[in-house]
Every structure is written in C-alpha cells, then in structure tokens.
C-alpha cells in the first residue's frame, strides 16, 4: 500500500483532522513549547474520541512509525512531537463534567490546567494541577503533579480516581482501583509509558479562593534559607515556589532593581483567609519587599494565560534535596551573582500531604523528599549552549546532597540513568513488569521511557 493510500485509509477511519506536511496548518501543529527545536512529524492526528486515538495508535504501530503523544506540549525533552513519525495531538479532547455533589470531575486529556481550574472554581472546588495554566492535564498528572495545592491535598495523582486508556493493541480500558489496578498504579507517576490516556476522573476539594501572588525580595542568603525554612514550618496550606534569579524589567519594580538578584516567590495560601497575614508574616519579614502582590484572589488567577509564541530555549537540571541551610544558600547566591544572562535556581518546599502517602501506593515514590530544586539557564543561540550547560551542571552539583532522586516531569533529555532515578527501589521493576503486560513492544517509548521487563 502506498503512503498516500495508507493516509487516505487513516482519514477514512478518523473523525478528527489528519494533517501532513502538505496540509494547511501543519507548521502550527508541529510546534511544542520547547524552543531550539524544529520537529517535523510525518503526520499529526487530532482525535475527537477514543476510536480516533485507537485508529492513530494502530496505524503508527502497523506502519512502524515512531509515535508521540501531545497534550499541552510542555515536555522538557520535547516528547510531544517526533521527527518522521505520528503525533497524537489530544488538544481537541476538551469535554469536562464536574459533579459538585460528589466533588469529582471527569476531564478529557486535551484540556489545560488553567481551563480545568477555572471550570472547577465556578463550583468552589479545585484539584491541584501544578502552577502553569497552559500545561496539559494529562502530562502533569501522569508524571505526578507538583503544584500549589500539593502540600495541602497531595499530588495530582493522589487525587486521580480513574483513567480511560488506549493501549498499544488498540483496546480501550478503564483503570481504577478495581479494574486493571496494576495499570492504575503505574499511571500515577509512570508517565506516558503505558498508553494514551484520554479521560481522567479526579477528586475535588472545597476552595473558594486563596491568598496568593508574587512576593519579590532581595536575594540574600539568609532570606533564601529563611524563606524555605519558614514555608516548611508553616501549615500545609502554604505553598511557595522560590525563584532565585535576576529581576526582570517588571513595570511594578523600580528600575534600579532590574537585573539585581532577587527572590521571586510565587506564594499560595489555601487555608482560612483570616489566617493569611500571620502565616505570611515570617516571609515578609525576611527583607524589604521590592514588590508584594500577595492578596486574596480567586484560585484561577494564579494560572495566567501563557504567550503561545513563547518558546524558551534553556538548559536545565532537576533534583530532590533535604535542606538549603545558610552555608548552602550563600554558595547558591554567590554562584548566581558570578554568572551572566538569565539564570534561575528554583526551590520548592514539598512534604505535607505528599509525604503522608505510602511510597508504594503510586509510581511516584519520592514521598519523603523535603525540597525540589531546578536549575536553569536560558540559551542565546547554539554557540551559547555549552557554556550554559556547564554552569547548570556545576550549580546542580552544588545542590546535590547524595540522593539521586528526580521528579520525572521536570527531566529534560538526560539519559536512562536519570530516568531510573525517578523510580527508586522496587518501583522501577514494578513499572517494567506493568509495561511488559500492556506495551510489550514498547510502542509508547517517546517519553521518559521504562522498557518492558524481559
């Protein structure tokens, strides 16, 4: 069968769009968030239902095409697309059914975190979907889901009740605590290794609003160490993302501070509003704020819309760690001050509800990790990459406290050893066994891949 005949057959089987390089709109569809790449898939399928997904998956399998699955397109390794292969682009799967009485929601995989957060907020309910509105709900969920509500209500996977999955053989199954429980366990942290998740059911939590926003402080070492210590000591309803970085030219910050090293903290208090001032006081006391935009807001306001034309090119490294004390904070601040260009050390307090889940209950097993670190440097052209990569590696080594653990959703294209570090102990072997059951041919390998056992 010729390529054109095969594509005609695929189009006949799919209700959604089938787009090739010769079709209008191809260039817009092939782009993901990651910059510095020029992906050129052979075909992009925009399914409208499970049958479309199954048709695309079996077409790729039978044709021997590499297969990628795309939702929000935020993979740090660019896994949402693939050269000379087939992309299943889920962005037309956007059905959402909220049951306020049961406090649950069925969410299709093409929706973004911002869209779902806004829809559930209309009922005074929420589930944690990270901190970026344009992230796809399926990608963040399958890798674990760390965000503003994680310390209060657990990871996104801790609130996943069921998932509909298209498998490598084209079957559609529901995975939950009763049906395919081995697959349900693996989906909660094991990424896209096991099939195409098209629909998910989540547990929702009451949330009328939060006290949150940006708190910008001068980046002294005592302030960095103190911010993390105060966040960890606070009630679980407090979350903070601490970005230590040069201050961008923000219009609400005096110009003399632009470019100076700052703590750009994104803060969220989801507890009683009347307690916010007392909880936030230790953070505000760490320095004279350059900007304090923390205020009572509807929760969806913490998920502003993203610029669709923004495709950053950066080198990054993520790791889990136990503590950032004053001596380490001093070294981090000094290293940032000695560098040039846009660079950031991001630190997040974990714990709380995350740590109260048995490490064996889900494929996200790093339940005892206290902090997450991410180091990034933005790249100005190909010639700049080596220098930035060396700075990132050196800074990550500074933070490294001997635990090789990583959060899989923040991994770039870093090799199999780093993927294994995301799944400690027996978790890796258990995932490989599930993979052998549901995808023995490793069709779903365009991801942070766990090969099938055997």
Automatic annotation (TrEMBL):
One of its GO terms (molecular function) is FAD binding. Keywords: FAD, Flavoprotein, Oxidoreductase. Its cofactor is FAD. It holds the Pfam family BBE. PROSITE patterns: FAD_PCMH (PS51387), OX2_COVAL_FAD (PS00862). Residues 37-207 form the FAD-binding PCMH-type domain. The keyword Flavoprotein applies. Belongs to the oxygen-dependent FAD-linked oxidoreductase family. This is FAD-linked oxidase. It comes from Cellulomonas hominis.
């Amino acid at each position: 069968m010729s390529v054109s005949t095969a594509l005609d057959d695929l189009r006949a089987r799919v209700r959604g769009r089938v787009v090739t390089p010769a079709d209008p709109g191809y260039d817009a569809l092939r782009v993901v968030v990651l910059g510095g790449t020029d992906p050129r898939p052979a075909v992009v399928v925009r399914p409208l239902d499970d049958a479309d997904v199954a048709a695309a998956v079996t077409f790729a399998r039978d044709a021997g095409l590499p297969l990628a699955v795309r939702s929000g397109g935020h993979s740090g390794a660019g896994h949402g697309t693939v050269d000379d292969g087939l992309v299943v682009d889920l962005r037309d799967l956007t059905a959402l059914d909220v049951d306020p009485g049961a406090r649950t929601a069925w969410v299709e995989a093409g929706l973004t975190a911002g869209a779902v957060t806004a829809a559930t907020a209309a009922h005074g309910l929420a589930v944690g979907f990270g901190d970026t509105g344009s992230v796809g709900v399926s990608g963040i969920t399958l890798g674990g889901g760390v965000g503003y509500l994680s310390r209060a209500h657990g990871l996104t996977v801790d609130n996943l009740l069921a998932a509909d999955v298209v498998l490598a053989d084209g079957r559609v199954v529901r995975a939950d605590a009763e049906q395919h429980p081995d697959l349900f366990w693996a989906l909660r942290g094991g990424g896209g290794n096991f099939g195409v998740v098209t629909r998910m059911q989540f547990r929702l939590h009451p949330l009328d609003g939060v006290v949150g926003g940006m708190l910008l402080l001068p980046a002294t070492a005592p302030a960095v160490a103190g911010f993390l210590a105060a966040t960890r000591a606070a009630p679980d309803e407090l979350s903070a993302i601490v970005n230590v970085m040069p201050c961008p030219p923000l219009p609400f910050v005096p110009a003399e501070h632009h470019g100076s090293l700052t703590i750009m903290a994104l803060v969220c208090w989801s507890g009683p509003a009347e307690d916010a001032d007392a909880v936030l006081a230790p953070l505000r006391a760490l320095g004279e704020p350059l900007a304090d935009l923390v205020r009572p807001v509807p929760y969806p306001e913490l998920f502003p819309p993203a610029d669709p034309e923004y495709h950053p090119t950066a080198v990054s490294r993520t790791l889990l760690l136990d503590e950032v004390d004053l001596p380490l904070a001093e070294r981090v601040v000094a290293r940032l001050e000695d560098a040039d260009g846009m660079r950031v050390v991001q630190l997040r307090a974990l714990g709380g509800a995350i740590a109260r889940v048995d490490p064996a209950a889900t494929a996200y097993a790093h339940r005892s990790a206290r902090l997450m670190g991410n180091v990034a440097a933005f790249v100005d052209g190909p010639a700049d990459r080596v220098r930035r990569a060396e700075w990132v590696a050196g800074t990550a080594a500074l933070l490294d406290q001997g635990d090789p653990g990583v959060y899989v959703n923040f991994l770039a294209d870093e090799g199999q050893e780093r993927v294994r570090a995301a799944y400690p102990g027996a978790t890796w072997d258990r995932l490989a066994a599930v993979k052998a059951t549901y995808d023995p041919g490793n069709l779903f390998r365009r991801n942070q891949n766990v090969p099938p056992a055997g």
